[in-house]
Design brief:
By secondary structure, the protein is of the alpha+beta class. It has a domain at 75-233: Nuclear Transport Factor 2, Chain: A, CATH 3.10.450. It is built from 7 helices and 5 strands. The protein is elongated. The termini are far apart. Residues 86-232 form the Tim44-like domain. The chain crosses the membrane at residues 6-26. This is Import inner membrane translocase subunit Tim44. It is found in: Membrane.
């Protein structure tokens, strides 16, 4: 029994000594310690922070009244002769949309032109809806519907664009309007239900001249332009 009491006391003393040693080494909790490190949460937080940083885009500001113009019109003056109505219209659009560049617009309009022409031939309403104003879209869809009701199909092949020139530019309220004269080459033929050609020629490249007007609300963050008017030049 004496041996048992001695052993018990020995282990109790050892436990107390070890406790105080650990306390000195590890310290006591004060409530202000950093939370345990979680590698998954940490990596995700770093990634989110990086994405937020990448998503910060500095929008170009509008020129204040009386502020020197500098070279902001240089691209416009190189594109359209200064003091002409076209140059003045392009400058007005630039004043309302500092990101506007005429050459960039023409390049985009040429791509949109091909997409619209081919989407109309294919009856692709989804593509047309993204590129046309509501009024123009309704007109295109009505024509497609009439064609489908007669089981007619357009066989079309886009060859290319020979010329695309801005002929007028103006602001209508907060909307920028740009009209282009586009000369393109297209192989197109309309076939009836039996497959007979009823319009056009599937073997001949035809020159097509169009006058199209694109518009964009410069007050909107949406950078896309939409086709708002079409006219076929004789």
């Amino acid at each position: 029994m004496g041996f048992f009491d001695f052993g018990t006391i020995f282990f109790l003393i050892a436990a107390v000594v070890i406790f105080f040693q650990l306390r000195n080494v590890l310290g006591r909790r004060t409530g202000s310690e950093r939370p345990p490190f979680d590698p998954y949460t940490a990596s995700r937080t770093d990634k989110d922070a990086a994405q937020k940083q990448e998503n910060v885009v500095s929008l170009p500001r509008k020129r204040a009244p009386g502020e020197p113009a500098g070279d902001i019109y240089a691209a416009i003056d190189a594109f359209a002769k200064p003091d002409t109505d076209l140059n003045k219209g392009l400058r007005t659009i630039k004043d309302n949309d500092p990101t506007f560049e005429p050459k960039t617009f023409v390049d985009g309009a040429k791509m949109a032109y091909e997409m619209i022409v081919m989407a109309y031939a294919d009856g692709d309403r989804k593509t047309l809806k993204n590129l046309l104003s509501r009024e123009v879209y309704d007109g295109f869809v009505a024509a497609i519907g009439e064609r489908e009701a007669k089981s007619e199909k357009i066989q079309s092949s886009f060859v290319g664009i020979d010329k695309a020139d801005i002929v007028s530019a103006e602001m209508k309220g907060g909307e920028a309007h740009l009209t282009l004269r586009i000369v393109s080459e297209l192989i197109s033929a309309t076939r009836d239900k039996a497959g007979a050609v009823i319009d056009g020629d599937p073997e001949t490249v035809a020159e097509v001249k169009d006058v199209w007007t694109f518009a964009r609300d410069t007050r909107s963050r949406d950078p896309n332009w939409k086709l708002v008017a079409t006219e076929e030049e004789d």
